């Protein structure tokens, strides 16, 4: 029995989930938001109830102390050393990490060297790690990379057709994202398939979204690219486009580079095309109500997902299962339907309309037995995967 803390640090937030391992029991979870502000918000779950406080949190160090104090105050732990390890989500592991890694000087400096590839994320992860290190100096920490699962891709799947100099000198290539989620879904999804040759297409459709093709537990291809702006169209991100779109918009609008970059990340996708909202639910509702721009937005969204599924079907040579997951994939039957309607003929999918529409946030098979491809909804659990990876990495390093 050991308590393991899964940590996800952003530039102004710290999310945590405390597990009893190996039982995988969630003891508590919470978030500190608006770190660096006088009115930061700290939320922690105590016996299923949310306890929220607004207070000044000047930096991540203060945030970690706040979390630890709350764990003691609410008698979740009686001393800090009850926490046997922390597992930190790290967005960019570059070409260095195929697996999770124990935090040491080497791991730290590699993550640091990758800051240019993921400036906001990797920097924040290290700030978070430093803050935990100060409060829990003897507790081992593990880095769990969003990119690690995708490191099994072949060069033809991850290289960009750019000058060799850029790929080599600047390490510009596809790394993918959401790898921790895709790995979790791949492992769980495969338990629902028979035989020893399992090929799946996993659709992680949250506000950030990516699709991965897997073969026997390994990633073969993934839609996100160098950054999270690549791949399929998302709530607010463009996904893949002709690279000259960027140049033309820049030239014609007279806006600066940073503005266009932010617009392509935060004001495009479903939001940009519909002009309605950065939450897919609002766009979905507007489309159902007949709003033309919203209808175009969801059609475009579904088309691009269908195209990727088609591409990955060919890449895998066959597909046994398609999984829908994350905010939209788990909850929005209508959005799944838009996708399924576009792929069902080519892939021989027969699905149950009612089961699809009724499934929200639970594991369900939405295809019928006669379907050539099994289609499932599986809720993802990145934090649990981080806790599992942390335990596994400690064992690998002979740390009890
Ligand atoms: P992320 O972790 O990338 O922020 P999530 O996987 O939590 O994303 O997904 C968030 C998005 O999922 C929301 O912006 C919304 O578009 C969609 N979503 C969340 N819940 C629902 C729901 N109940 N019905 C439909 N869409 C939902």
Q: Which descriptors would you attach to this protein?
A:
400 residues; Nucleotidyltransferase, domain 5; 2 domains; eight-stranded mixed β-sheet; 14 strands; 41% helix; 22% strand; globular; binds adenosine-5'-diphosphate
Task: Report on the architecture of this protein.
It is a single chain. With 400 residues, the protein is an alpha/beta fold. It folds into two domains: 2-145, ATPase, nucleotide binding domain (Nucleotidyltransferase, domain 5), CATH 3.30.420; 194-382, 2-Layer Sandwich (Nucleotidyltransferase, domain 5). The protein is built from 15 helices and 14 strands. The protein has helices at residues 60-73, 105-113, 119-135, 155-158, 164-169, 179-190, 244-253, 257-266, 269-274, 280-288, 292-316, 326-331, 333-347, 353-358, 382-396, and strands at 2-9, 14-21, 25-33, 37-46, 49-57, 83-90, 101-102, 141-145, 199-205, 209-215, 218-222, 321-325, 364-365, 374-377. The strands form two sheets. An eight-stranded mixed β-sheet has the order 5-4-3-2-1-6-8-7, sandwiched between helices. The protein has a six-stranded mixed β-sheet with strand order 11-10-9-12-14-13, sandwiched between helices. A hairpin with a 3-residue loop joins strand 9 and strand 10. Helix 1 crosses helix 3. The longest helix has 25 residues, at 292-316. The radius of gyration is 21 Å and the shape is globular. The mean pLDDT is 96. The site of adenosine-5'-diphosphate (ADP) has 12 residues, from helix 10 and helix 12.
């Amino acid at each position: 029995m050991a308590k393991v803390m899964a940590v996800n640090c952003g530039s102004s937030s710290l999310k945590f989930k405390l597990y009893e391992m190996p039982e995988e029991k969630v003891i508590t979870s919470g978030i500190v938001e608006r770190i660096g502000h006088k009115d930061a918000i700290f939320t922690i779950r105590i016996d299923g109830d949310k306890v929220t406080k607004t207070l000044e949190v000047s930096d991540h160090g203060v945030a970690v102390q706040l979390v630890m104090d709350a764990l003691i105050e609410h008698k979740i732990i009686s001393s800090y050393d009850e926490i046997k390890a922390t597992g930190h989500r790290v967005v960019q592991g570059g070409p260095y990490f195929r697996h999770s890694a124990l935090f040491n000087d080497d791991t730290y400096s590699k993550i640091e060297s990758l800051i240019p590839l993921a400036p906001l994320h990797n920097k924040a992860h290290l700030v978070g790690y430093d803050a935990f290190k100060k409060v829990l100096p003897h507790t081992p920490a593990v880095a769990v990379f969003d990119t690690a699962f995708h490191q099994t891709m072949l060069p033809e799947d991850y290289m960009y057709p750019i000058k060799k100099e850029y790929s080599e000198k600047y390490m510009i290539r596809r790394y993918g994202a959401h790898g921790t989620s895709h790995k979790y879904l791949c492992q769980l999804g495969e338990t629902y398939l028979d035989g020893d040759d399992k090929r799946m297409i996993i659709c992680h459709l949250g506000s950030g979204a990516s699709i991965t093709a897997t073969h026997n537990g390994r990633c073969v291809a993934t839609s996100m690219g160098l950054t999270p702006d690549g791949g399929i169209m998302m709530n607010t991100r463009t996904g893949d486009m002709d690279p000259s779109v960027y140049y033309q918009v820049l030239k014609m609008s007279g806006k600066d580079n940073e503005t266009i970059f932010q617009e392509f990340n935060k004001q495009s996708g479903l939001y940009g095309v519909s002009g309605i909202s950065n939450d897919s639910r609002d766009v979905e509702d507007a489309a159902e109500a007949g709003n033309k721009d919203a209808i175009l937005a969801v059609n475009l969204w579904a088309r691009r997902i269908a195209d990727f599924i088609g591409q990955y079907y060919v890449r895998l040579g066959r597909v046994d299962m398609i999984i829908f997951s994350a905010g939209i994939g788990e909850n929005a039957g209508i959005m799944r339907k838009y996708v399924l309607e576009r792929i069902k003929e080519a892939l021989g999918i027969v699905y149950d309309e009612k089961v699809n529409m009724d499934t929200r946030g639970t594991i369900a098979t939405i295809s019928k037995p006669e379907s050539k491809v099994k289609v499932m909804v599986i809720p993802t659990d990145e934090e649990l995967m981080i806790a599992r990876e942390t335990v596994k990495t400690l064992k690998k390093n002979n740390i009890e």
